[in-house]
């Protein structure tokens, strides 16, 4: 049987597409036993759909490819996305940090809404079906030698958390069609470093730390885990990190001199803990690394030791050894090269009728709703262009 269109991938982008496109005869092929598994875990099950503020401010949140996604984001903005969900009975709420969620704080409500709309629009869902072969026909596509369609929409995500079904299995088929694939790497992922010194401090976090990876800067929260650096300040720069990269953290968020008053009576350990609001166990570790006796009177601290403490607090520098890999990564950096598609319609330039949307493309956003927003924007642009 020939379909008008097949969407490969029943994740966020595929379902956003189907929810926005009426069709007589459409099929969603999904590798997992159930669609939307990653959507269900997004925002810790609460689904941070997008971010507040001007859409102009989104561009800086997609790394080096930000400018290339501008037209799709401007056309289908964060406001459009909110209007879409609100018009379908999912009111939205914006948190103080700008993240936008469904008011119910349940990703499952978003998934139910999308599934309902996709079905009402005429799309059938086939689960447990991994697409591995795509053949070009004169007037369409043949998937796995069985499913024929006039138009084909690739919405297979990347490789992060492969147990969700997004396992990168579509990329060999896309490569075989002659599409360039930018090497796939984990992103929004914790960074491991040589000689990690904070194994005993798991759970300690810093608000608005200044993080630098090979010159790329970002101010956001940093979390110490038992084996790596995590938290949004680290995750958002992980796309730039490779083994040997230099990671620098300023836990205080800005460069400053430790001004210890001459009349200060406390020992250095207490002074640092009290005046900089730093966790006691972290201060102990910093002093040990700086070779400073924690019981030294703060006002008697030699300049050299003060400088050593300052260097750790404000310029703690590490050589990156790697990341914790795809099993922990929230997104994938790399994917179908953006020069392969028209970034207004998401149609492949070389293959008419083939559309590629969402994380399968070489687009990865920061934490904060930017990835689901791109999935939505690219899906709606493609649906309108495909005329479905
Ligand atoms: C833990 C976690 C939390 C996150 N939280 C947020 C958040 O709050 N806000 C945000 O904006 N982003 C978040 N993200 C990122 C966001 O979920 C993804 O960027 C988004 O889901 C990408 O949508 P997609 O449809 O392109 O890919 P996916 O959602 O990964 O969907 C791809 C689908 O295609 C299917 N598939 C793959 N290969 C094949 C194949 N060969 N044949 C058939 N089907 C196939 C998969 O099973 C999957 O269902 C989070 C990610 C993770 C892992």
Structure, described:
With 388 residues, the protein is an alpha+beta fold. The chain folds into 2 domains: 2-186 and 330-386, 3-Layer(bba) Sandwich (FAD/NAD(P)-binding domain); 191-323, no CATH class. It contains 11 helices and 18 strands. The protein has helices at 12-19, 37-41, 70-75, 78-87, 107-120, 171-176, 232-235, 268-276, 280-290, 303-315, 370-386; strands spanning 2-8, 26-29, 50-51, 92-94, 99-102, 123-126, 134-137, 140-143, 147-154, 181-187, 191-193, 205-213, 216-224, 229-230, 246-250, 316-323, 331-336, 354-356. The strands form 4 sheets. Strands 1, 2, 6, 7, 8, 9 and 18 form a 7-stranded mixed beta sheet that branches. Helix 1 (12-19) packs across helix 5 (107-120), helix 8 (268-276) crosses helix 9 and helix 9 packs across helix 10. The longest helix is centred in the C-terminal third of the chain and has 17 residues, at 370-386. 47% of the residues are buried. Flavin-adenine dinucleotide is lined by residues 8-14, 29-32, 35, 37-39, 41-43, 47-48, 130-131, 155-157, 160-161, 165-166, 169-170, 330-331, 358-360, 369-372, 375.
Which descriptors apply to this entry?
single chain, 388 residues, alpha+beta, FAD/NAD(P)-binding domain, 2 domains, 6-stranded antiparallel sheet, elongated, binds flavin-adenine dinucleotide
Offer a concise description of the structure.
The chain has 388 residues and is an alpha+beta fold. It has helices spanning 12-19, 37-41, 70-75, 78-87, 107-120, 171-176, 232-235, 268-276, 280-290, 303-315, 370-386; strands spanning 2-8, 26-29, 50-51, 92-94, 99-102, 123-126, 134-137, 140-143, 147-154, 181-187, 191-193, 205-213, 216-224, 229-230, 246-250, 316-323, 331-336, 354-356.
């Amino acid at each position: 049987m020939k379909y008008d269109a097949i969407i490969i991938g029943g994740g966020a982008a595929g379902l956003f597409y189907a929810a926005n496109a009426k069709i007589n005869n459409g099929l969603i092929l999904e590798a997992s036993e159930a669609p939307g598994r990653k959507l269900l875990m997004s925002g810790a099950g609460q689904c941070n759909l997008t971010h507040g503020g001007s859409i102009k401010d989104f561009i800086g949140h997609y790394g080096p490819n930000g400018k290339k996604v501008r037209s799709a984001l401007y056309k289908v903005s964060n406001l459009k996305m909110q209007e879409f969900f609100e018009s379908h009975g999912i009111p939205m709420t914006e948190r103080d940090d700008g993240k936008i969620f469904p008011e119910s704080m349940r990703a499952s409500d978003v998934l139910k809404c999308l599934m309902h709309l996709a079905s009402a629009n005429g799309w059938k869902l086939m689960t447990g079906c991994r697409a591995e072969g795509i053949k070009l026909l004169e007037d369409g596509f043949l998937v796995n030698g069985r499913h024929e369609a006039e138009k084909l929409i690739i919405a297979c995500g990347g490789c992060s958390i492969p147990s969700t079904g997004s396992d990168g299995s579509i990329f060999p088929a896309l490569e075989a069609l002659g599409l360039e694939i930018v090497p796939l790497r984990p992103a929004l992922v914790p960074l491991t470093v040589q000689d990690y010194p904070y194994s005993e401090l798991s759970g300690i976090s810093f608000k608005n730390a200044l993080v630098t990876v090979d010159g790329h800067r970002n101010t956001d929260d940093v979390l110490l885990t038992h084996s790596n650096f995590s938290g949004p300040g680290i995750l958002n720069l992980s796309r730039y990190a490779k083994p040997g990269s230099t990671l620098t953290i300023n836990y205080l968020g800005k460069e400053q001199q430790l001004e210890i008053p001459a009349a200060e009576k406390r020992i250095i350990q207490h002074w640092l803990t009290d005046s900089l609001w730093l966790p006691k166990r972290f201060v102990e570790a910093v002093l040990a690394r700086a070779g400073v006796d924690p019981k030294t009177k703060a006002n008697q601290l030699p300049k050299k030791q003060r400088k050593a403490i300052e260097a750790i607090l404000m310029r703690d520098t590490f050589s990156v050894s790697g990341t914790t890999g795809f099993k922990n990564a929230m997104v994938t950096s790399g994917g179908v090269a953006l020069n392969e598609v028209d970034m207004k319609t998401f149609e492949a330039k070389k293959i008419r009728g083939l559309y590629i949307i969402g994380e399968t493309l070489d687009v990865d956003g920061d934490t904060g709703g930017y990835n689901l927003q791109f999935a939505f924007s690219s899906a709606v642009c493609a649906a309108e262009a495909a005329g479905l």
